């Protein structure tokens, strides 16, 4: 069978592409990467250096006319977590307005304007999406689910921590898949008992097996239009109705809490460390080690705000240095640079403390060594890329499972 054609949005340095291409079943026909806050488009430069400039856009996706985007079978992207609230406009009372800068609505626009929309969606976000915003828990996700249903899709989702399945980094993200009602997969989901889909037979359950208690499965209906959902969904409730695993089809949510079912080999931080000489710049000067130890230590102290107000501040201790026999902590965008930090990784090798190198950070996300190495790209920027990236191995396993389900 021919490879499935893919549109890759918010491509970063190409984690989705790497994971899908590893399966041998997907071909990226168009990609887009635009960083609004920087003049130099570093991530797009890396993407083009690795995959070539052909069919790659480095323009603001909200400005790209839909006809310029080719038809594809699958749309993928890790889009920013923002405020997804909507409202009607007087000029267009039937239409909805989501803030143009909110990139979810660019996905929505492409799906709604294409004469032949992608049959499948594969999207990623931080797991906070399931419970944001804090004053209307779950509203943003409900808006997304309902807007996709109006465009003809059913959705299944899972929060996956890569380390639970043997990968070298504890990185928890929500992945959700959309199936257009014209597909066999949609019809298969509609006919299948949703409990068995969530726990055994679904695309995500086959890629990443789970344990779950069928008796704790909850259902709810998402009714009304997007504006009423935006105004009133789950108002006054302390908890989101969405658990870490779920399905939404024809207005009905089925959701439950699951845990990973995995007992094979697990990679650890120590497994990704470079052998041999490490550049001296990554080592921490002995006189600076106490600063790092303080920032990572437990604290109970009185602090004074700029306005003179005094308050009690406390935080727990972090492991220092990072344990080499366990999966690493989550890489964040501020991982790079020499300045002491509570959140940067520090390892002890040859009786010296040091930060992680760009190659080691790439390995924690299962990227090829030196994927982000390019003239004009600093080590700090390379670390930033990995703080924004996804774990390639997760994408690869879901991509393989999706392809299998489509074809059987």
Write the layout of secondary structure elements.
Elements: E1 4-9, H1 15-23, E2 26-32, H2 42-51, E3 56-57, E4 74-78, H3 104-113, E5 120-126, H4 139-150, E6 153-161, E7 172-180, H5 184-191, H6 194-201, H7 203-207, E8 210-212, E9 218-221, H8 226-232, E10 245-249, E11 252-256, E12 258-260, H9 269-272, H10 289-296, E13 299-304, E14 310-315, E15 346-349, E16 352-355, H11 358-364, H12 379-388, H13 392-407
Parallel strand pairs: 1-2, 1-4, 2-3, 4-5
Antiparallel strand pairs: 5-7, 6-7, 6-10, 8-12, 9-11, 10-11, 13-14, 15-16
Give structural attributes.
single chain, 408 residues, alpha/beta, Rossmann fold, DNA Methylase, Chain A, domain 2, 2 domains, ten-stranded mixed beta sheet, two-stranded antiparallel ribbon, 28% helix, 21% strand, globular
Q: What is the H level of CATH, i.e. the homologous superfamily of the largest domain? A: Vaccinia Virus protein VP39
Q: What fraction of the residues are assigned to beta strands by DSSP? A: 15-25%
The major β-sheet equals: 10 strands, mixed
Counting DSSP E segments of at least 2 residues, the number of strands comes to 16
Number of domains: 2
Measured between the Cα atoms of the first and last residue, the distance is 12 Å
The CATH class of the largest domain is identified as Alpha Beta
Can you tell me the residue ranges where pLDDT is under 50 for at least 5 consecutive residues? 88-97
Order of helices and strands: EHEHEEHEHEEHHHEEHEEEHHEEEEHHH
User: Helical stretch count?
Assistant: 13
Based on Cα principal axes, name the global outline.
Answer: globular
Q: How many whole angstroms does the radius of gyration measure?
A: 22 Å
> If you consult CATH, what is the topology of the largest domain?
Rossmann fold
- Quote the average pLDDT: 92
The computed structural class is alpha/beta
Instruction: Write out the strand line-up for the largest beta sheet, numbering strands in chain order.
Output: 3-2-1-4-5-7-6-10-11-9
- The CATH architecture of the largest domain can be given as 3-Layer(aba) Sandwich
Percent of residues in helices comes to: 25-40%
